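Much of what follows relies on a compact textual record of a protein's fold. The record below shows the convention in full:
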Amino acid sequence: MTIATLTWADVDPARHPFDPGTVHDVVRAVASAGGVPAPYRYNRFTVFDPATAEADWSRERAAEEARWAWQQAMDAALVEHYGGWAAGWNAQMGGRTADGALVLRWNGARDSITTPEETLEAVAGALLDWRTFLEDLAELFARHLPLPAESSAAFVAWEATVATLVAAVAARSGADEHWYPVCSLALKWFLDVAEVPGDGHDALVEAAVGGRFWSSVSPQGAEVADAAESLAAALTGITPPPDDAWPDIWPQDWPSWRSTELPAAARAPRTPPPVVVPDTLAAWRRIRREARWEHATGHVEGPVRTHRDGIAEHFAKRGCRTVLAALALVREDANAGGPLTFARLQAWQQQVLGTTTAGFRTTSAWARAGRERYAYRDDLPAAFEACLAEATDPLVPLPSRAARVFLDVLFFHPFADGNARSAALALYFVLGSDGVVLARAAPLLMTRWPAADPRGAEGLARFVAALIEQTRR
């Protein structure tokens, strides 16, 4: 069971009695009889002996699988004991210490499994934090309900409620990797509690927050305001009047998107940061034209593969099960043949994000906490499709094609979230179509490749070639 499948009835604290004083004893009682697995111990200075490297990697894979299997077993045991609501214990919602500091007690099996005693304490603490979060949500729901019946008053009430909910979730999670999915879920729960008719709650929330918020990026005040206004308008049929204006300076000392200089009707759905950031996508498109793709590497003949799948191994170690499921689709498409298209990329991304919608973004996008900007133009989807079509051009050496499509996805940034994972899937498809499966891929996937350096683009192509040669050897 995952929290994405839970309704408010499944998690409502009023329907599920809970004794916080017994949690630590329960966790110890339901923990796997096999004990807590060994913690992850990464040392970047470790030098692997080539003679034992394969055995070392095999042991590490088995240890990593054991850690994630233990987390899954603990999840199942807690759900069996407490009910479905307990599935959120590993949703990475932080809790407060006695001095008010936000603490994340569970951050996945790899990072949070330490000594047996500390690990069980972390599980218990994470479950308590999740329960506290649900109780806070219930209190917030009750405080904002019932909503007014009159349309204008209802619009104001919905706008205030949505903004409060988004801010509450972001504050509790520290805006880490998982805050955005939990935020969307909390909004859907409130729609349910508020008895909003129909079964289109997912679409309502996606239309309001999709493209505005991202995992691992703290939302800005203006973005929260625009999301709240969007959902309120969709629910009430009322849009703000053109003279709707907010103060020119927001409390965080940056210009408000609702300033007196710009009427509400003209606002774009996405608010850029106040600092002017160069267009990373424009830089990449220039470098893409200038790079010597045909000469950066030589041609490679497949098949080239071993019993290891480096890209799958990379995501398995991080517990990215949706990506592993998407990789299965990529393999099927690579075996079926044909070009790389946006439709294929979109189908894989839907699997990665666990959604039925993963369209091309319709606004400018940002990454790295606002330090990179990917501007939007109306011709961008068509330009991206043309770039994807070049990914299987046999006249360009395979390493260059794979590197180029990897960077295309990163810098065209077609999706609202998960573009790095999408880039890895595109590279996997291009290589797999020629019968190549890299035995080792973590260095490629964990390295930041600049957009504006032709030597970096050609260097990535040569690095892919080196990884293929390493796999062949």
